[in-house]
Design a protein that fits this description.
about 525 residues, alpha/beta, 6-stranded mixed sheet, 3-stranded antiparallel sheet, 25 helices, about 10% strand, globular, binds calcium ion
Length: about 525
């Protein structure tokens, strides 16, 4: 048999070889794909993170790969890196702020003088709460010492924050990961911009006594005073008064009261949305939330308030994680158990869709194709326990399925896997359905081949994958070209990258193909803009 064409064709190439002349590189699975450019990979790192690893790449290796890419970006344009970090962090597009803080710390240490200054000037935008600051300080020490620039940057974080907010930060996040505000202030030595700041700095660094008798006149110092009073309180009533009158968050309440349901009932109305999502299980286990209670109605109202969700920058992954944990009725560490309340599960299900930027339907015909091969079941997206790329893709796909009227959803590995999921199902039911599928090898060309074999007319193929394709006899980009030729439809391909590796099945030279990052909250808008074009 004549093998020349099998060995070298630009129209049909085995995925185990590069398409001739394409510039493809080997992926981790022994197949060939394109490599993202460094800025595209920076986006994946900022949004998906590296600490959850992938099926093929350990968390450590994935972090090193991404950090080396960040260095390449810094060498090309450190100021642009900072701008990207600020944009992704402040718009709430990423599930976790840690990659943004890490990259900012890298620029602050490894950038040229201009980039280092821009990075440190950006601290108040990216470092929004005490925990962020402690993480940043931990990271930055890996790249530089405490020179004048860093001291000035951290000092500016303290002096630019209004005193009232700083007092709240000081009682809410006292320390994390071996860092405290005392450490930060002693290193940075800020000059207090007001008497209130001066008193706050003194209290943080020296633990100044607050007089018992009456609350001070300053709002900021009232918070500190109430925090000190709470330490000495001997009754539930005293703690409740301090919460109501001075707005103490639960972190500022001494641990001995954490088991008291009455305290939580008092905390609930003023609890920030993020804290509320993290405490749903506790509030159900301790009886504050019951199926008919007014507290449950309050929680449902807050969780489904789109304006509140967006203001608090609640990311869909935070909602999905809360839903997966809450509906299980059992804590990750296994000690706490509770009976989940259906109204709350439904509210979380609704909240998931409200946390994305909303878009108008395009009315185009979509094939949503989920890679359900073995590799998609391993590793955690955005360092979120239990959230495999496979589960994350199913959740992402529902978002398009709920918006667009003409959608077919399929699964694939080395073969087609029919999927029985619909946005009419609750998210946790979809998670169960997708989790139970068999594993297989990976052929990302399958969706287009399936559409050709079955005369499916589609304007867009959306493929959710880790881009570790290797099994097929034809590359996905070639299969799309064959589909276009056969049907006469100028179909588009959008690749939703679900892990922070550097591979993509999208041909960067084909204007009809686009690579986006899974669980970027801007994805629905990016997709519909691209498909409408
Ligand atoms: Ca795979």
């Amino acid at each position: 048999m004549n093998k020349l064409r099998q060995y070298f064709s630009t129209r049909q190439t085995s995925q185990k070889m590069a398409i001739p002349g394409s510039g493809q590189v080997a992926n981790s699975a022994g197949g060939y794909t394109w490599a993202l450019d460094k800025w595209g990979q920076l986006d994946r790192f900022l949004i998906l993170g590296s600490e959850g690893g992938t099926f093929y790449i350990s968390p450590q290796k994935l972090t090193v790969d991404n950090a080396e890419n960040v260095i390449d970006c810094i060498q090309e344009d450190g100021v642009r890196v900072v701008q990207r970090v600020v944009e992704i962090s402040t718009t709430g597009r990423a599930p976790k702020n840690d990659p943004a803080l890490f990259v900012l710390a890298m620029v602050a240490g490894l950038g040229d003088e201009a980039a280092r200054r821009v990075a440190l000037d950006a601290l108040p935008k990216v470092v929004r709460v005490g925990t962020h600051l402690f993480h940043f300080m931990e990271y930055v020490e890996g790249f530089r010492g405490w020179g004048r620039g860093l001291r000035r940057g951290v000092a500016n974080w303290y002096t630019s924050m209004p005193a009232k907010r700083l007092a709240y930060q000081a009682v809410k996040y006292q320390q994390r990961d071996g860092w405290s505000h005392r450490d930060a202030l002693r290193l940075a030595h800020p000059k207090a911009p007001s008497d209130e700041h001066d008193a706050l700095f003194a209290w943080i660094t020296q633990g100044m006594e607050m007089p018992d008798a009456a609350a001070p006149a300053s709002d900021a110092l009232k918070t500190i005073w109430a925090f000190e009073q709470a330490k000495k309180a001997t009754s539930v009533g005293e703690i409740q008064t301090l919460i109501v009158e001075y707005g103490l968050p639960w972190e500022a309440i001494p641990a001995e009261w954490h088991g008291t349901a009455e305290i939580w009932r008092t905390l609930l109305p003023q609890m920030p949305l993020g804290a509320l999502l993290r405490n749903l299980a506790r509030l159900t286990a301790n009886g504050v939330l019951t199926p008919m209670s007014q507290e449950t109605a309050l929680v449902v109202g807050k969780v489904t308030d789109q304006a509140l969700l967006q203001k608090a920058r609640i990311h869909p992954i935070a909602v999905l994680a809360a839903l997966m944990t809450y509906q299980s009725g059992r804590g990750v560490r296994g000690k706490l158990t509770w009976t989940p309340i259906t109204r709350i599960i439904d509210a979380l299900d609704a909240a998931f869709y409200q946390t994305f930027q909303t878009v108008e339907p395009t009315g185009k015909r979509y094939v949503l194709a989920l890679d359900v091969s073995g590799s998609m079941g391993a590793g955690w997206v955005a360092n979120t326990v239990g959230l495999s790329p496979r589960i994350a893709s199913a959740a992402m796909s529902l978002l398009t399925a709920v918006t667009e009227p003409q959608v077919t959803t399929i699964g694939f590995s080395h073969e087609l896997i029919p999927l029985n999921i619909s946005p009419k199902q609750r998210l946790d039911d979809v998670v169960k359905a997708i989790s139970g599928l068999p594993f297989g090898a990976t052929d990302c060309a399958k969706p287009m081949l399936w559409a050709m074999e079955n005369n499916i007319e589609a304007d867009a193929f959306i493929v959710y994958t880790d881009n570790e394709t290797w099994y097929g006899d034809i590359h996905p980009a070639q299969a799309l070209q064959a589909y276009r030729a056969q049907t006469g439809i100028d179909a588009k391909l959008i690749v939703v990258g679900m892990v922070a590796n550097r591979y993509s099945i999208a041909d960067p030279n084909d204007a009809g193909m686009l690579d986006v990052v899974g669980f970027d909250t801007a994805v629905p808008r990016l997709m519909s803009d691209f498909i409408r074009e």
